[in-house]
Amino acid sequence: MSKEKARNQAPLSRREEQIRSVLREAGPRPAVAKADLESIERAARLEWQEQYGRQSRAATAAERTTARWLPLAAALALVFLGVWWWAGPNFRGGSSVQVATVESVHGSSKLTVGEALRVGAEIDVSGEPVAFRLVGGPSVRLDAGSGLRLVSTDRVELERGALYFDSAGLVDPVVVATAHGLVRHVGTQFEVRLDDRESDLRVRVREGQAVLLRDNSSYSAGAGEELRVSRSGAVTRSTVAIYGTAWEWVERAAPSLEIEGRTLEEYLAWVSRETGWRTDFADPTLAASAEGIQLHGSIEGLTPSESVQVVLPGSGLEYRLEPGELVILDR
Amino acid sequence: MRRLVAGEEAAFDEFAADYLPPLHRFASRRLRSDPETVREVVQVTVCKAIPKLSTFRGEAALMTWLCACCRNEIAGYFRQRKRRGVEVGFEVVDEGYASADLLDATRPETPETRLLQAETAELVHDAIDQLPPHYGLALEWKYLEGASVREIGRRLDLGEKAAESLLTRARKAFREKHASRSSMAGGTSPASPVARRMEFES
User: Fold this and answer.
1) What is the pLDDT of residues A205-223, one digit of tens each?
2) What is the ipTM of this complex?
3) Packed helices A14-26 and B111-130: angle between N→C axes, nearest 10 degrees
4) DSSP letter string over B11-25?
5) Helices in chain B by DSSP H: which ranges?
6) B200:A297 CB<8 A
7) Which of A20, A22, A298, A320 to mutate to test the interface with B (most CBs of B within 10 A)?
8) Could you tell me which residues are beta bridge partners of residue A134?
9) pTM score, two decimals?
10) DSSP letter (8 states) at residue B142
11) How many CB atoms lie within 10 A of CB A320?
């Protein structure tokens, strides 16, 4: 007997038997008349095209305009590149020193994974967030609508939008320069956001500490704290959750973890770091066995919190989410 | 949702296939009216909801949100027609009936038990319709058709492990949803039979 056949013929658990009984007694859901559904769908599609088809048409029109001018632009670019290259490094005014490597991109982006970023590189993110890693080890993520310049291996200038910094436990100082002050980390995960609705600058710390230097003063914030520089220049400190929707863009930008061959313990440490959740086992003996559970497969394309829905049940475990905590249970 | 508001046709096709049938059943159970009225109410609901999709922030499941919109349209329909709608076992309970006991096929059939069985079946269908779209399908395929996990995965374009974990989540969600639906249908009138919740083993 094949494994699949054996699985199908295996007796159901009592819970499954209850569900089967309820569903069978209720019977299948009644089908909706095809004519009715088609009529509703037609009307809905017209409304949807009216509302959202415009955006799509505008994008298509922009693409057509680009396509018309592309050959001329390409020719001009080639000429410019030729002159620029011939003029040599001094004219280029840049440096060949590599500062960072692109780690993840989502959607359409001019950047590619593995691309080297050099001193002076300017990064503009219009679509989905991107992530890159500085040569010293720290990870930097940029939210959609952000602009940043890589000044050196330990200094970046945030020109607009938001940046998330994860020092990955390293202590080499990296400075985030903004028009409203410098943010220095001390073993940290933090976010710097410019032109938030309520302030000119906002610094949120998830782990460790960040120090804001401004107007000859320094302001520090620890894990779960936020510093705001208001429009009037006042600096305030308040508490903030280190998990939840405010950090969703950071998760989306996270480079995926290769789980093949990793232990459950390693995977959970990564989930905790990326989501801000504490991970806890309902049973201490289960916690002890986490080191011995080896994972297989891939979570490519899933955010860390999405991956939990696949990895834990696939490991024969259940879980529940409480505010800021992932509790793992045996099935 | 992103693809839908970006104007992707394929995203609209998925939205229509996943949400229109359960929304229609939701309205049909509450209106108890002719098909033309149900179709009209659902059509108005969806056409009013579509412009608001771009501001939908996902605090609730999309189906939950659509049902709330539909409920408003149904209330408006009844107000317009100055008629009191008959709501069976969901929000307003006339007489508390719904009980999984009454699905027992060995009981002698009377018009009353047939009505109660139909209402209880509706509770189950309502619970399934409120689940994320693929959950309901996976449960029906597994427990009504007897489809294998592999076959379910094939139909949903998932690997076997992903299909198994989807079924686990679907069972859990169904237990929770059905328990809350059954408890809302509990009788309050002293003259009514006492409704006993279908309690799944914990």
Assistant:
1) 988 888 888 777 788 888 8
2) 0.72
3) 120
4) HHHHHHHHHHHHHHH
5) 2-5, 9-31, 35-49, 62-81, 111-130, 133-140, 149-156, 160-184
6) no
7) A22
8) A100
9) 0.43
10) I
11) 11
